[in-house]
Amino acid sequence: MLVLVLEYYFVAVVTVAELPSGILSDRLGRKTTLHIAFLGFASSLLLTALASCKLIAPGTVASTSTTTPISISISTTMPFLLWGCLGLAQFARAIGSSMYSGTDMAFLYEVIRKYNNNSNNNSNAVANSMLLSIESRNVFYTTLTEASAAAVGGWLSGAVGLPVVVALAAVPFLLGAVVALFFLESTGAATASASASASAS
């Protein structure tokens, strides 16, 4: 029941946040928007890990091959603070998802156009072709990484506990937030080039 309530809440927040996310991406810039998205994902995982420490009874995770079932207490008497922690986790996840959605592809598209001469009449076709190629490879490597991480995560959860694994999952997003700070915005250059081309015509 708890999982369903949290998922409904997540979907509701995403639905609302998706509406202004495109406008915010244009106003704040792709770099800042992606930075916020990565921080949202990382915060969600860290808050979930914190809540999991209270949900999972201590001493129930086995360190040998003979496993003991993990005891999870999900009752109506769950402290308000714990509900708030899980709610904040889903809110941060929803913000991260809405901010990331479409922004990554928009950023790549602008970078591709910038380095393939915006003034070229075929720049749109070239950019779309390259973007499709990059996205195809991205899907392949993402699926491969997730499959590998799932296998390792299952083993780690039995060795160090589920909360630790969830917290470790935030590390790639924290690294992404740091890397995003070094992105070079190309929106301004693209807009200036487009304006110059329009004036010349």
UniProtKB/TrEMBL annotation:
Q: Which domain of life is it from?
A: Eukaryota
Main subcellular location: membrane
Its keywords, alphabetically, are: Membrane, Transmembrane, Transmembrane helix
Cited SUPFAM superfamilies: MFS general substrate transporter (SSF103473)
Stored PROSITE patterns: SUGAR_TRANSPORT_1
Question: Where does the chain cross the membrane?
Answer: 6-24, 36-57, 69-89, 164-184
Q: Which GO terms describe its molecular function?
A: transmembrane transporter activity
Gene Ontology CC terms: membrane
How the protein sits in the membrane? Answer: Multi-pass membrane protein
Q: Does the keyword Electron transport apply?
A: no
InterPro entries, sorted: MFS_trans_sf (IPR036259), Sugar_transporter_CS (IPR005829)
Tell me the compartments it is located in: Membrane
Q: What is this protein called?
A: Major facilitator superfamily (MFS) profile domain-containing protein
Q: Which organism is it from?
A: Pseudo-nitzschia australis
